[in-house]
Amino acid sequence: MDFDPDQTSLLERIDRLLPRSLQLKLSLLVTGLLVLLISLVGALFSDFLRHSLLEEIGAKALDVAHAVSYDPEVLEGLLTQDSARTQAVAEKIRQATGAQYVVIGDSRGIRYSHPDPSRIGHPFVGGDLGPALQEGRAYVSRAVGTLGESLRGIVPLRGENQDVIGFVAVGYLLRDIDVTVRAQQRQIYGYIAIVLMFGVFGAAIIARGLKSAIFGLEPHEIAALYQERSAIIGTIREGVVAVDGAGQLTLVNQAARRYLGQEGNDNLRGRQLAEVCTNSELEQMLTGGQSVLDREMRLKGRTMIVNVVPFSGPPRGAVASFRPKDELDRLGRELSQMQEYSELLRSQSHEYSNKLHTIAGLLQIGAQQEALDLIMTEASGYEELIRTLTKAVPDPVVAGLIIGKFNRARELKVLLSLDPDSSLADVPAPIDRQHLVTILGNLLDNAFEAVRAGDRSPEVRLILTDLGDDLILEVEDSGPGVSPEVAETLFDKGVTTKGQAGRGYGLYLLRQAVTALGGNITYGQGELGGALFTVSIPKTGREEA
């Protein structure tokens, strides 16, 4: 359908003339429409009233004329040509019925009675006696007589042989009828004014209620909010899905379309959630009316972290946001690496600060040889560690992590040793190094905390083996070992023996990384007297289900 530009321009000009306030604009529009409608109805009703009154008065005039035509005195006066007798009867009937005139005349149209006696004996004026005198019909006529325009009922007078011998005309002046109609119209207009007053009051209430329902916003503000919302939701990397109380989709952003495999241009609004997502658990969560936070769920073959929040009031419904868990894990690993790097720099700064203070003190007291020996010892220690790691662990990411943990151990006064026979050179390319970093980092951090809580000398040993078909990572410590109270739930999220809030995620993330690589993890008691954790990772990677 094509729109006329001129018509659109006219509508725009009219809209500009209206006030900007939605409440005032709506009140004016409803009031204007109500005035137009009531005026139209009032005009139609007034016209109907006038026509009804004319028909009623015409019928009354005809009935009175019929009654006069059967009066024997009228017939006798007409036959004897006694106008005085006829005038007396006619005036009595006129006064009794309220008619403007009752005129009786002969077959020639000569009056035998009239409200003005001077007009008796003169021809009847109006030119509408033909049907009565010539055809013998009774009818209602509208004509202009000596008294003015009137509505008259005309009936023929018949003699003994039923021949037409005269006529009876009973009339009501139209100006008197119009006075009656205007009086009725004034009453109608009073009712219209009352209805209009209530209509204006109702329009104001409706406008105020609508303004309250849209939180007092104006249309241009609503449009701006909608555009902002669309832009914000379009830039969110998380999938966002909203449904109403019936489970029908009301919002699906581009990320959600991609995650749900609905990347076409089809309009998903109004469709059932089950049509675009086969996971019944998500549908139950959205329609259950309960908040759900950080729930893991499989959607289209990927593990998602899902959050669901129901609407706080009517209309009913809920909104869900979800994002692939592997993306969140990647962000977590990147954050963990940054934290480890920061911790490495801090520990190195702290350690070297102590060493520099020591060297400065030795030089100040003249112990140059001792200062030189300390410098050589530190240099040779790091050189030996770096030389060993370069040979045993060629991967720079893993080697960098181990160096950082050695520095951390020194700061914590923990003896961290790498088994001299360790080797992690044969690491296939498909194995994610970030997962290896997560596994080694959490194992060593857990061991550091364990030995600091024990009674024995704090010692942690790291053993790396790449012989055979599996990579073997072993970390043992001299701590108190694994408590039987948490043995069965050791790798669950939030389980900890530290008794501090925000702890219990290290071993959980460790298990997630091991599972992602298709490996397994076991623990027992090591030679140092504490716990021994062993991680086995197949070099072929995780087997596909």
Features:
single chain; 545 residues; alpha+beta; five-stranded antiparallel beta sheet; five-stranded mixed beta sheet; rod-shaped
What is the element layout, followed by pairings?
Elements: H1 5-17, H2 22-69, H3 72-79, H4 83-97, E1 101-106, H5 130-134, E2 139-145, E3 148-158, E4 164-173, H6 174-213, H7 219-235, E5 239-244, E6 249-252, H8 254-259, H9 273-276, H10 280-287, E7 292-299, E8 302-310, E9 317-324, H11 325-364, H12 368-392, H13 396-411, E10 415-418, H14 433-453, E11 459-465, E12 470-477, H15 506-516, E13 520-525, E14 531-538
Parallel strand pairs: 10-11
Antiparallel strand pairs: 1-4, 2-3, 3-4, 5-6, 5-9, 7-8, 8-9, 11-12, 12-14, 13-14
Structural commentary:
Helices cover 51% and strands 19% of the residues. The chain contains 15 helices and 14 strands. It has helices at 5-17, 22-69, 72-79, 83-97, 130-134, 174-213, 219-235, 254-259, 273-276, 280-287, 325-364, 368-392, 396-411, 433-453, 506-516; strands at residues 101-106, 139-145, 148-158, 164-173, 239-244, 249-252, 292-299, 302-310, 317-324, 415-418, 459-465, 470-477, 520-525, 531-538. The strands form three sheets. It has a five-stranded antiparallel beta sheet with strand order 6-5-9-8-7. A hairpin with a 2-residue loop joins strand 2 (139-145) and strand 3 (148-158). The mean pLDDT is 80.
